[in-house]
Write a structure and sequence with these properties.
504 residues; alpha/beta; 19-stranded mixed β-sheet
Length: 504
């Protein structure tokens, strides 16, 4: 039986497995029957124009490049299907105002659309036709008053919008007041370069259905915001707040506000904060009240030992980022033994990703117990980022191999030939290894070609990166080539030295 002899119902069911390029270009071009099947089908859910990004597309009649794909060509191919729920045109510059007008006329029942900077405010007004719209993504749209007027009209006409992504797009206070009246479930906002001084607590109390909230480059998150979330958003699953810049004067989150948020948002799975956490009892409340917590990112400058111990009840934690802003030698509540005890208290067999950042004048010689405790306790760890400057010799304190770790990043990490030998012996299954050192001091000066070649004992390595301005004084191109030859799976092997870059 040939493909052409299949019943129409079977061919229609096959369309659900085709990507956009095949659906709009290749499949209809086979024969008139296939073209009519596409036209009569209602199974197409999403059209993604990312296949036009950054390359010439043979399927397009004249081989247009990304920046040359006109709106009329995109609309021509969309006309080959009868129904679509979602259109993603973020990777296509042809998705301009003309494109939006055509799409909304062809598919007034559209439920989701994603566009980028090539769309201006006047064209966005056409989206108000799609009153069934539930998902709207506008990236890098900066048409000032035009965009503001268009957003207000869209929000007035499309009351069902549940996912709103305005990252790097202009948002006025009037637009935010409109957002507060929508049944939004997922909200992404970005205040970069707009300086509208938006206070999140003014918006949060009305968004009772919210389960995902992401603020990028916003005003610092403080106790008021966390308490508003705990009171108004019981369905919140994910909170990601990244302020415009971190500094020592940023707000400190009290234990009381963290406890209020945790007790009100018990379904929380991901929490990423850049305001400073000051005490352990608030984090302990998060750990005990949010049993589904999988991702956690904290920034602290005191009481590190207590906060590390407070994470013990997190039984499902898979990703942890722990940022310390201050000197361990001078900050109260930080000791190597205390941090190691905190790590030892974790239910660490669930942890897959661990990133540690210590800023400023830290005495890294005090961290060997912490490093050894990490590798001893977190037996299923797959990705590890070491604190800046943490010596590799802590590997000598680990008695056994650590086969689960596949990705390791070490910044300004002092190392010797023996340390690199230990690395290849203790971490035999590494696939991604990156060293960063922009200092010309003695950090790597004792490492010879023999030490570099020891890395090649990690025979499964796929990515190896040395990034530094004079930071790897004894590295040679011949050494890099030898490592590449010994690691048969190597895809990327790079040495960046100042303005020079060598890839083999």
């Amino acid at each position: 039986m040939s493909l052409l002899s299949l019943p129409k119902e079977v061919l229609v069911s096959l369309l659900a497995f085709l990507d956009t390029e095949s659906l709009l270009i290749k499949f209809p071009a086979v024969c008139t029957r296939f073209s009519s099947v596409c036209k009569d089908s209602d199974v197409v859910k999403k059209v993604d124009f990312s296949f036009t990004h950054g390359r010439y597309e043979q399927g397009f009649r004249k081989g247009w490049a990304k920046s040359e794909v006109p709106a009329r060509a995109l609309l021509q191919y969309l006309s080959r299907i009868r129904h679509v729920d979602e259109v993603d045109a973020r990777s296509c510059d042809g998705a301009n105002d003309t494109f939006l007008e055509g799409v909304t006329r062809m598919f007034p029942g559209l439920k989701g659309i994603s566009v980028e900077h090539s769309v201006e405010g006047p064209g966005l007004v056409h989206l108000a036709r799609c009153q069934s719209l539930t998902s709207l993504t506008l990236h890098c749209c900066r048409a000032s008053s035009y965009l503001t007027d268009a957003l207000e009209k869209i929000m007035s006409s499309c009351p069902l919008i549940a996912k709103l992504d305005l990252r790097k797009s202009f948002t006025s206070k009037d637009s935010l007041r409109r957002i507060a009246k929508l049944p939004v479930v997922e909200l992404y906002l970005d205040e970069r370069q707009e300086h509208i001084s938006f206070r999140p607590e003014a918006l949060v109390p009305t968004l009772h259905r919210l389960n995902l909230l992401q603020f990028l480059h916003c005003q610092p998150i403080d106790d008021t915001v966390l308490e508003a979330l705990g009171t108004s958003c019981p369905h919140l699953h994910s909170l990601h707040a990244e302020e415009q810049a971190w500094y020592h004067g940023q707000p400190q989150l009290s234990d009381r506000s963290l406890s209020t948020m945790a007790q009100g948002c018990t379904k929380l799975e991901s929490l990423k904060l850049t305001s400073f956490v000051t005490g352990g009892s608030g984090i302990h409340s998060v750990a005990t009240s949010c049993p589904f917590l999988r991702e956690l990112s904290l920034r602290v400058h005191s009481n590190g030992d207590a906060i590390a111990l407070a994470l013990a009840p997190c039984h499902r934690l898979q990703e942890l980022q722990f940022v310390v802003i201050m000197s361990i030698a001078n900050a109260a509540g930080f000791t190597d033994a205390g941090m190691a005890a905190g790590v030892a208290s974790w239910n660490a067999h669930t942890l897959r990703t661990l990133r540690l950042h210590f800023h400023h004048d830290v005495d890294y010689s005090l961290l060997s117990q912490t490093g050894a405790s990490i590798l001893t306790r977190c037996v299923n760890l797959e990705e590890l980022q070491l604190p800046r400057g943490m010596p590799l010799h802590f590997l000598q304190l680990v008695p056994d191999q650590f086969p689960s770790l596949v990705k390791l990043r070490a910044d300004y990490t002092p190392a010797t030939n023996e340390d690199l030998l230990q690395l290849s012996a203790k971490l035999p299954n590494l696939k991604h290894l990156k060293f960063t050192n922009h200092s010309s001091g003695p950090v790597w000066s004792s490492v010879s070609a023999e030490g570099y070649l020891a890395i090649a004992r990690c025979t499964l390595l796929e990515v190896l990166e040395f990034d530094g301005y004079g930071g790897f004084p004894n590295m040679r191109v011949e050494t890099l080539l030898a490592i590449k030859q010994r690691c048969s799976s190597m895809r990327i092997c790079t040495w960046r030295n100042g303005i020079d870059q060598m890839s083999v």
